C-alpha cells in the first residue's frame, strides 16, 4: 500500500528481525576534580584527593611538572613527567591524561621554571560488558561510542568533516601499559572527559583508539566511515585520521595484538578514502610550533604524531614500527583502488584517473540525478584513464560518477556539474508514540527525505544499544513511512533511529522516542495547558490512562532539573483518571513552567507535554483615534466598543481596532491560551 509519495511496509518484528541482548547497565558518570598546586622543585606534601584513576596536568612556564600517585593500598608510584603533546592554550601547557589505577593522593614537583600547576583528577568507573560493536565491510570489529558509554551530553558542537582523507597519524596515549582488557573502556571514557572538560575541546580528540588486547574503539563522534575532523595534531587535523595506541611506547613496543588491530584498522580506513598506505603526501600546515601556517610538509600516508608536531608521540618504540606497519597495511585487504581524480568541467572533456593495486578490469560510469546512465567506459589494467566528452550534458545539471572494478574492490564515487541539494531527513514522527499489543498493536513511522538515499531504521534501547535493525533499503526522495510492531521487544522506553546515507557518503540521522508497554494501554490529557489559579478557566487538568493489569502507577511532572510526584499508588486494572489542580502529592504548589507529564508503570515511562501558566497577560492602550492596543503575547482580545463586543485573536505587538469608528466607550481585556485574563483597559469620552 502507499502513503504519501513513499512506500509503506509492515514490519512485524517477532517474525522479521533478530533481537540481541541489550547489554549491561550504564556506568556511572566520570567525575573530575580540579585544583591548583603551588609549584616547587622539591616534592609537595602528599595531597589527599577524592578517589581517582586518571591524572592530567596543565601548567605555565618552560619547565616540566612531575607527579606520582598513591594507590588505595598505600604504595607510591614512580615519578613521571607531564608531557606536552598538545601544546599551549594561551600560556597554559597541557599533558596527556595518564591512567594511574585507583589512587587517593598525589604529589607534584617541578623541573625548571614552572609558575603555576593545575591538577585534573578523574575517576572513570568500570564499564561492564562494552559489547556493542559495529563491523562494516573490511573493517575490524569496532566498539562503538554506545559500547564504551561515551557521554554524549558533553559534546559541544556538531562534527566537522574534511572533503577527503589524505593520511593517518598514529599516536600513543602516554598512559600506563599496565591495564586489563576490561579497563580499556574506562580509560577511553576518562580521556573523553579530560579532552572536553579540561582541554576545552568539542569531543575526544582521536578518531579511533586501540588497546593492548587488540580492541578498537570508535573515537570522535560523526561516523566511522566519514572524514571527521579530530583534535589530535594541531594544524594537521583536517584530512587526517588520528589513531591512538593506548599505552606508553617510548621504550616498550605495542603488543602484537595491538599492532595487528592497528594494521586491520588502517587497511580498512585508508581503503575507504582510497589512500595508498605507501604513498607520500604534501600537506599545507595549518600552523603550530613546528610548522608555520601554509608551510608544505611531506608526510607518509602512515605517519606518527611527531612528524607533524614537536613531541615524542607515539614513542620511539612505536615510531620505529611505522614503516613495517604501513607495509603490512598495504598488503591487507587487496585488491584496492587508489587516488581517484576527476578533472575538467561538465560541458567539456572530463578526465577520470585512478590506480589499481593489481591488473584488473575497471569501469567508469556517469549517471544523472535520477540514476540514468549517460556515459560509461570499461577497460583492464592497473591504471584507470578515460575522458568523457560531456558537451551534450545538460547545463547546470548534477551528475554522479563511479569508478569500479570487480566485487572485491571498493568503488570510488563523486559528483560533477550543478550543486546537489542537501541531504536531509525531517519530520520524523511515530503515531501512536506508545504500543501495547492490544489497543495500539502497531505504529506508523513517517519521515521526509530530500534526496534518494539508503535508509536504515533501528530500534535502540535506553543505553544506546541497537535492539533490532528494522530495515535497510534504498529509498527515493519524498515522504516515506512504515508500520512498526514491537513483536518480541520487552516492555521499555526505546528510540527509533533512522539514518540516511546517499551515494556520496553524506549521512543524516534523526530519532524519535517510542514506548512498548503491556501494562499501560492508553495515556492522555484533557489539554496541553492548565492555569490552576481559581478563576474558573482551565483550573483543572484531567490525566486519563488505561491499565491492562494491576500495577503501581506514578504520575509526575518533570523538567530536566526536577521531578514533582503527583500520585504514586497501587491501582487496579481498568480506566483511571487523576485531576491535577496545581499541587504536588505533598501539597506544595507546582510552579509555572513547561513540563512533561510522566506516567510510569513497571519499567515503562510515557510522557505528554504540559504547560502550567497562572500569569495573566498584559494589555495597554496606545491611542483612541485610531483605537490601538499593545499586547506582549499571542492572546484573544475581548473588547466592548460603544456597547458592542468583538473578539479577535492577535499576535504580539500593536493591534488596531475599530478603524473607522469614533470610540466613545471602551472596555477591553485579553486572554492567553491558558485562560488567564488581564486587568481591563477602559475609556470614556468626555
Question: Helix and strand layout, with pairings?
Answer:
Elements: E1 2-3, E2 6-12, H1 13-16, E3 31-37, E4 47-60, E5 64-71, E6 80-81, E7 88-89, E8 92-94, E9 98-111, E10 116-123, E11 133-134, E12 142-143, H2 145-148, E13 167-172, H3 184-198, E14 208-210, E15 216-218, E16 240-245, H4 256-272, E17 280-284, E18 296-300, E19 302-304, H5 316-330, E20 337-343, E21 349-368, E22 373-389, E23 398-404, E24 412-417, E25 425-431, E26 434-435, E27 443-449, E28 453-460, E29 466-475, E30 478-485, E31 492-501, E32 507-516, E33 520-525, E34 529-530, E35 541-547, E36 551-558, E37 563-571, E38 574-580, E39 593-601, E40 604-612, E41 619-623, E42 627-631, E43 635-641, E44 644-650, E45 653-657, E46 665-671, E47 681-684
Parallel strand pairs: 2-30, 12-15, 13-16, 13-19, 14-16, 26-32, 34-40
Antiparallel strand pairs: 1-2, 3-10, 4-8, 4-9, 4-10, 5-6, 5-9, 7-8, 11-12, 14-15, 17-18, 20-21, 21-22, 21-23, 23-24, 25-27, 27-30, 28-29, 28-31, 31-32, 33-35, 35-38, 36-37, 36-39, 39-40, 41-42, 42-45, 43-44, 43-46, 46-47
Structure report:
There is one protein chain. The chain is mostly beta strands. The chain contains five helices and 47 strands. The strands form ten sheets. Strands 3, 4, 5, 6, 7, 8, 9 and 10 form an eight-stranded antiparallel sheet that branches. A hairpin with a 2-residue loop joins strand 1 and strand 2 (6-12). Helix 4 (256-272) packs across helix 5 (316-330). It starts with a strand and ends with a strand. Residues 1-24 have low confidence and may be disordered.
Amino acid at each position: 500500500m502507499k502513503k504519501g509519495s513513499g512506500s509503506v511496509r509492515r514490519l512485524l518484528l517477532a517474525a522479521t528481525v533478530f533481537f540481541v541482548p541489550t547489554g549491561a547497565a550504564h556506568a556511572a558518570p566520570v567525575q573530575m576534580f580540579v585544583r591548583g598546586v603551588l609549584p616547587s622543585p622539591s616534592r609537595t606534601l602528599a595531597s589527599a584527593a577524592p578517589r581517582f584513576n586518571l591524572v592530567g596536568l596543565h601548567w605555565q612556564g618552560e619547565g616540566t611538572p612531575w607527579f606520582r600517585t598513591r594507590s588505595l593500598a598505600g604504595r607510591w608510584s614512580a615519578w613521571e613527567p607531564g608531557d606536552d603533546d598538545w601544546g599551549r592554550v594561551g600560556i597554559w601547557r597541557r599533558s596527556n591524561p595518564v591512567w594511574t589505577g585507583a589512587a587517593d593522593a598525589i604529589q607534584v614537583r617541578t623541573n625548571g621554571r614552572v609558575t603555576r600547576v593545575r591538577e585534573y583528577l578523574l575517576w572513570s568507573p568500570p564499564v561492564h560488558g562494552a559489547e556493542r560493536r559495529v563491523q562494516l565491510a573490511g573493517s575490524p570489529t569496532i566498539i562503538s561510542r554506545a559500547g564504551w558509554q561515551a557521554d554524549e551530553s558533553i559534546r559541544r558542537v556538531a562534527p566537522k568533516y574534511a572533503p577527503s582523507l589524505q593520511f593517518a597519524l598514529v599516536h600513543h596515549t602516554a598512559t600506563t601499559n599496565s591495564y586489563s582488557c576490561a579497563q580499556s573502556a574506562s580509560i577511553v571514557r576518562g580521556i573523553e572527559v579530560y579532552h572536553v572538560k579540561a582541554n576545552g575541546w568539542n569531543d575526544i580528540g582521536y578518531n579511533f583508539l586501540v588497546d593492548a588486547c587488540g580492541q578498537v574503539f570508535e573515537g570522535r563522534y560523526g561516523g566511522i566511515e566519514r572524514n571527521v575532523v579530530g583534535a589530535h595534531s594541531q594544524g594537521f587535523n583536517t584530512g587526517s585520521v588520528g589513531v591512538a595506541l593506548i599505552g606508553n611506547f617510548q621504550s616498550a613496543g605495542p603488543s602484537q595484538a595491538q599492532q595487528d588491530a592497528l594494521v586491520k584498522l588502517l587497511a580498512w580506513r585508508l581503503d575507504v578514502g582510497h589512500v595508498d598506505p605507501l604513498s607520500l603526501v604534501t600537506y599545507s600546515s595549518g600552523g603550530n610550533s613546528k610548522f608555520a601556517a601554509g608551510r608544505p610538509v611531506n608526510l607518509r600516508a602512515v605517519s606518527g604524531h611527531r612528524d607533524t608536531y614537536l613531541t615524542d608521540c607515539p614513542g620511539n618504540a612505536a615510531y620505529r614500527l611505522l614503516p613495517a606497519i604501513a607495509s603490512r597495511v598495504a598488503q591487507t585487504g587487496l585488491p584496492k583502488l587508489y587516488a581517484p581524480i576527476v578533472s575538467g568541467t561538465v560541458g567539456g572533456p572530463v578526465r577520470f584517473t585512478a590506480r589499481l593495486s593489481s591488473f584488473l578490469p575497471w569501469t567508469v560510469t556517469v549517471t544523472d540525478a535520477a540514476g540514468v546512465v549517460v556515459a560509461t567506459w570499461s577497460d583492464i589494467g592497473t591504471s584507470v584513464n578515460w575522458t568523457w566528452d560531456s558537451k551534450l550534458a545538460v547545463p547546470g545539471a548534477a551528475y554522479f560518477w563511479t569508478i569500479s572494478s570487480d566485487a572485491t574492490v571498493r568503488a570510488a564515487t563523486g559528483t560533477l556539474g550543478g550543486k546537489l541539494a542537501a541531504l536531509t531527513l525531517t519530520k520524523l514522527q511515530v503515531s501512536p508514540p506508545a504500543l501495547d499489543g492490544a489497543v495500539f498493536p502497531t505504529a506508523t513511522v513517517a519521515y521526509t527525505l530530500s534526496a534518494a538515499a539508503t535508509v536504515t531504521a533501528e530500534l535502540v534501547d535506553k543505553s544506546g544499544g541497537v535492539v533490532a535493525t528494522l530495515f535497510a533499503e534504498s529509498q527515493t526522495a519524498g515522504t516515506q513511512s512504515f508500520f512498526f510492531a514491537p513483536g518480541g521487544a520487552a516492555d521499555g522506553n526505546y528510540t527509533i533511529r533512522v539514518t540516511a546515507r546517499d551515494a556520496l557518503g553524506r549521512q543524516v540521522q534523526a530519532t524519535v522516542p517510542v514506548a512498548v508497554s503491556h501494562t499501560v494501554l492508553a495515556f492522555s490529557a484533557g489539554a496541553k495547558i492548565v492555569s490552576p489559579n481559581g478563576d474558573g478557566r482551565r483550573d483543572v487538568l484531567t490525566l486519563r490512562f488505561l491499565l491492562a493489569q494491576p500495577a503501581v502507577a506514578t504520575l509526575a511532572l518533570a523538567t530536566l532539573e526536577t521531578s514533582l510526584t503527583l500520585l504514586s499508588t497501587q491501582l487496579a486494572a481498568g480506566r483511571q483518571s487523576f485531576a491535577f489542580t496545581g499541587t504536588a502529592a505533598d501539597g506544595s504548589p507546582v510552579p509555572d513552567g513547561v513540563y512533561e507529564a510522566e506516567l510510569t508503570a513497571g519499567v515503562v515511562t510515557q510522557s505528554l507535554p504540559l504547560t502550567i501558566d497562572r500569569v495573566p497577560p498584559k494589555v495597554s492602550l496606545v491611542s483612541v483615534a485610531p483605537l490601538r492596543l499593545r499586547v506582549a503575547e499571542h492572546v484573544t482580545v475581548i473588547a466592548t466598543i460603544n456597547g458592542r463586543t468583538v473578539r479577535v485573536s492577535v499576535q504580539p505587538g500593536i493591534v488596531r481596532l475599530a478603524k473607522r469608528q469614533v470610540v466613545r466607550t471602551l472596555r477591553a481585556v485579553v486572554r492567553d491560551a491558558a485562560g488567564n485574563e488581564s486587568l481591563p483597559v477602559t475609556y470614556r469620552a468626555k
